[in-house]
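hey so u asked for the seq, here:
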Amino acid sequence: MSDSSTIISSWEEIRALVEQVDLDIRKNAKGNASAGIRARKGLRALKNWSGDLVKATVVADKARKADK
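ran it, structure tokens below
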């Protein structure tokens, strides 16, 4: 798998997680405590996954610069 497809794949996973967290936050705002737990768990995962994506993009950029 190339760097760009890995980055795109990671981004798609993050987008799906954001959509799920959005739903859980809206449910929690209406009083669903379980949705609040899921939302917080999702937000922690989102933080980690976005950090991993940042690292992957930096590595890909450095690799492209080294190839030039």
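The radius of gyration is 16 Å. The chain is about 90% helix and 0% strand.
lmk if thats what u needed
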